[in-house]
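Subgroup meeting minutes
Present: P.N., E.W., G.H.
Scribe: E.W.

1. P.N. recapped why we're keeping a running log of single-chain structure predictions: easier to compare across weeks, and new members can see raw inputs and outputs side by side.
2. G.H. added today's entry (119 aa).
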Amino acid sequence: MYGAFGTYGERFETVVSLLIFPVTPIIYGWVVKDKIGAAIVGAVPIFLLLFFGNLFFGNLIYMDSFNLSRFLTILIYAVSLATLGSLAGYFASKREFKYLIISIFFGVLWISVFLRGID
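Output recorded in log:
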């Protein structure tokens, strides 16, 4: 039973990896106060990882033909996560408590959308 869930280190690594994407733009926006930079930090890394990673190394091409449905699904998923991450960073960059709460909400929403998109 224990082997099915992995070791404590593997579980910790998974949690940290999951939290890096929504937490980084929040911290960057709060510390630097750069609205555009925080939005970019929230959008670009996850979009590049999901979209281009699936395009070049994933399963977008089946039987020597392009699968438009799978392409659009991954595009919408990547854009939604990028949008949530950029909104989290943008609101955190305003450096007010009420905006920090909104930013954390977008971070939690990011995690929810990410987990729902895993096949």
